[in-house]
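Exercise: predict the structure of this protein bound to NDP.
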Amino acid sequence: MPDRNESGPLHGRVVAVTGGGRGVGRAVVLAAAAAGADVAIAHRESEAGAKSAAEEARALGVEADVHRCDVTERDQVFKFVAAAERRFGRVDGLVNNAGIMPESPFLETTAQEWDRVIATDLTAAFHASQAVLPGMLERGSGSIVNIASRLGQIGWPGVAHYASAKAGLIALAKSISREFGQRGVRANSVAPGVTNTDMGRAVMAGEVGRRRMAELPLGRFGEPAEVADCVVFLLSDASALLLGQTLNPNSGGLMP
Ligand code: NDP
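Solution:
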């Protein structure tokens, strides 16, 4: 067994990640493992991606567990957290990452579609935060990171449900920080700009994508590993003074 990163910022911690089988979530799993954390990986359809992420994490010398968890199902979210606590004894960090962004013009958005997006992109973080908080409060420490979006800060046509949910995640992190900060639990958000994943590639493609990229101060879109670095920072003690804050790995596309 290789040696874990004992000087890593997450050494000795346990980090649970939703949607950890691909995209940003998978990158967060690997970055947390590289920083020394044991990882509990939840996936819905991307079982193979989650299992291979666990293998890669173990190759970094940490423990890794894989669970199927549809984040819209409260029971499944609680079972995921309970299984992680059983296996590792604790969950120190929660990353609310799973998300969907179906496009639908506002006037054509059905109530069902609205509810599905809010359930996945916002209510799931409520379930997972409620599941991890009792253990965190008992130990007097914990860090919750919500993966929001630049669109949650500016709104966007065709994805009002998504943008509203992402704005909600930012407010959720602030509210949790205000309610539990004095008991050792911090919650913050990461609001990426367009990032090179299945979700991001839809935006990156074609002439519109090229134009948007050229307008970015950095001149390029983000990679999942670059977003994951921000998440690891917020999970670690290096960000001890940050509560209810939002980091913006967005290539300079929005400077709030
Ligand atoms: P992907 O489309 O690549 O991945 C989506 C992830 O969400 C998958 O891991 C998927 O799991 C999971 N997921 C979706 N629905 C559910 C569900 N009901 N239950 C459990 N898991 C679910 O997207 P990204 O990796 O890019 O997105 C990750 C986060 O980053 C999202 O919250 C997204 O909004 C945010 N973000 C992404 C940006 C981008 O440009 N890529 C920009 C700003 C924010 P599975 O495959 O197992 O079904």
